Amino acid sequence: MRQVKALLGCSGSEERRSGEEGGEGPPEGGPGSPSECPDGADAPTKASENGAGSSGSPNGGEKGAPQAPSSFYCPISMELMSEPVMVATGHTYDKECIERWLAQGHRTCPVTGQRLRHLELVPNFALRNAIQEWATAHGVKLRNDGNRVNAPIHYQDQRPRNILQGHEEIVWAVEVHGNRLFSASADKTIRVWDIESRRCERVLEDHTRPVLSLAIAGDKLFSGSYDYRIKVWSLNSLTRIKTLEGHTDAVRALAVADNRLFSGSYDSTVRVWDVETLECLQVLKGHIGPVRTLVYAGGLMFSGSYDKTVRVWNVTTLLCKATLTGHGGAVRALVASRRHVFSGSDDYTIKVWDVDTLKCIKTLEGHEDNVRVLAVGDRYMFSGSWDKTIRVWDLETIECIKKLEGHSEAVLALAVGDRNLVSGSYDTTVRFWDLEALRCVKKCEGHDDAVRVLAAANGKVFSGSYDGSIGVW
């Protein structure tokens, strides 16, 4: 909290209190941030214990000065609030202090460290009246008394308009459908964004743990979560239709084929659901490790697992047609071209499988660390690795024709657009690579943490970050 006040330059008896406030400042909005607590439950208590700011001035801590209830003090300045306003988490601050906090680029609640879902400041009338009554009874003059705001204050976010704020934690998946973008987050929600206006239309809240995967089929959106469940949402009304239960661990991957939804789980199974009736048709067993990724090709569903194998399932009969072995590490990524399926692994390699014979026709080597993401276009397959590079493989010759360098950290996400390959990295940037020249033509910044997922559609690229934000490029 000392750092918060130093940044804001708030008045108050900092020197007197400095020895008692060490270590109070929570980390900014990530997993494990402190849970919300009632207004004034933590930081203001120290103010009352020290008698600090009870008169609304730096001298308020003098012996004999009247001491107000702890909830009357701003958690930032430790002084009596003259204009208390609530932020999105429900915590109350003095308007002047919280505005200064937001003006410096912070998008978290100072007390909890949680990311603010919006920047509206709502006057806390009940608390303001209580403070005013106490001040009048004790002869204490409040700062700016009478200069009151009686309507919500919409703080103007100074961030670029292409960076959309709302999620409180990591964005794990993004999916585009028509003029809407859907984003799934570790904050247990799915946000629905209008692409044209770049505004959040709706927040879908029903999961009880992080949402990891999304898929769309017909007029339905499916979301898989760490709560072991799949939620089914209507794309028309944006309301929940049904909850699909059966998995006994996180639902990490979703894929649709022939009006059937396939769900891959950390419980080592793949479940198959009828998209219309929403009934479970089959539980596909065989993997002995978490199922991480799914891809459809040639009437077959391929599932990649941490057990180092890829299993092949007939979409119609739901029988296992083959188990593809050979990787020496977890299979984290699968993509398919017209003739081949590519599997990327922690063993630093990519294997190429013939869709018809299901034989490995080649092992692609060159990366110097785990292969985390794959993407395929009309002419090339692209692989991103923890070695900070992207390799470009010709689909006809199955040879590496270029190594793309530029990111300073691991490459976590890839997407192929009309004219560019797009990459996202732990270095917080999004890079655009020309598909003809195979060189970087644009480096985009705006996220404050790693870029975890990408989607390209209708001439736009959407990025989801560890900082909870969505980028539109």
Automatic annotation (TrEMBL):
PROSITE patterns: U_BOX (PS51698), WD_REPEATS_1 (PS00678), WD_REPEATS_2 (PS50082), WD_REPEATS_REGION (PS50294). Residues 1-68 are annotated as: Disordered. It holds the Pfam family WD40. Keywords: Repeat, Transferase, Ubl conjugation pathway, WD repeat. The keyword Thylakoid does not apply. GO terms for cellular component: nucleolus. Residues 47-57 have a biased composition (Low complexity). Its EC number is 2.3.2.27. Pathway: Protein modification; protein ubiquitination. It is an enzyme of class 2 (transferase). GO terms for biological process: Notch signaling pathway; protein ubiquitination; ribosomal large subunit assembly. Residues 67-141 form the U-box domain. GO terms for molecular function: ubiquitin protein ligase activity. The keyword Repeat applies. This is RING-type E3 ubiquitin transferase. It comes from Ostreobium quekettii. The lineage of its organism: Eukaryota, Viridiplantae, Chlorophyta, core chlorophytes, Ulvophyceae.
